């Protein structure tokens, strides 16, 4: 089926491109024809698609001042990312995950505000003034929201971090120097499949060694990251930003103790692959004395293959109507919520900043004490949120545990996502065609 569709798409392009060239006054025989580069299940990536994405990435790297990787290396990296993106969007569609126009317009409105533009219309004008097709930009934002929700649903929501892991993490961090410091880091990650043979592992290690050799030969870290790293931040120079020293996993923390700003580590091995870390800067940090915590409760109706978004939303809307008419929030949560907090009446206890996903935390933070939200969507489903209390509290042992939990979650989430994406690829039909025809 995928092959047949690919051939039909190719035939359509052959007929579509030639008349356009003729209309432009270019002899058809001199006009390069688009062709399929990769078949991904029932979809295709064409040479035009790849060239368009390459142009965007090259422009981005130039704006960042990043020297361009070798053309063939960059092209291969971009193509693999496009395949991964396409597989995620296909899976989202198959499992009923979608972003409707209303949600998309809200997201675009937030982007407009962040860019200090008064309205979505002004934002559109600015985008088009920069030579960007707004409708295409809009769909790219839709795709980004979809993949973020997909990751939250399929990966982040399934991570379980035990108390023993947290205690072991805190114990190991207490033995490390550098507490009270923040480190600005960048990294390169070469992913190794879970059941790779010894020969395959050596191949991936050789790729990491090539990257390290280029770095030691004077190539910029951002350039090598763009060409060799499998991490999601590769095209941003592998930038991890500022991280508290005590919240780094031991795999990174111990080698970093020996580095001076500007230096890179050797090759570090984790269960997920090979890593190279660059220490960009160090700085002292003043721990915040107080943080604002929110005591909240919620009702969650999950979306799934059996429960599409509209059905989940309608079910939660009915629950909200009952609460608005006087039904007890906690009782409704016990009866209908599909979260682990249901038995406690949806009580999430005290939440610190960054402890919940942004799609939940933003609406929660906007509520006044006692107020109940409208229907809120996240990667987990649809939520009804009520804020019970707020407080300013000292950074305590419990807070340090939560910071440790977040640090472990961040590290494990990246590994789990790469593993999930690898499994998605293993189940897919992917056929590579010749890049140049």
Describe the model:
With 437 residues, the protein is an alpha+beta fold. It has 3 domains: 2-154, Porin chaperone SurA, peptide-binding domain (Triger factor/SurA peptide-binding fold); 181-287 and 399-425, Chitinase A, domain 3, CATH 3.10.50.40; 290-394, Chitinase A, domain 3 (Roll), CATH 3.10.50. Helix content is 50%, strand content 18%. The chain has helices at residues 2-23, 47-63, 71-94, 101-114, 120-129, 134-154, 163-174, 198-216, 221-228, 250-256, 309-324, 329-336, 358-366, 397-427, and strands at residues 36-40, 43-46, 181-191, 239-244, 268-270, 273-284, 290-302, 347-351, 376-378, 381-394, 430-432. The strands form 3 sheets. Strands 4-3-6-5 form a 4-stranded antiparallel beta sheet. Strands 8-7-10-9 form a 4-stranded antiparallel beta sheet. A 3-stranded antiparallel beta sheet has the order 2-1-11, with helices on both faces. A hairpin with a 2-residue loop joins strand 1 and strand 2. The protein is globular and about 70 Å long. The two termini are 24 Å apart.
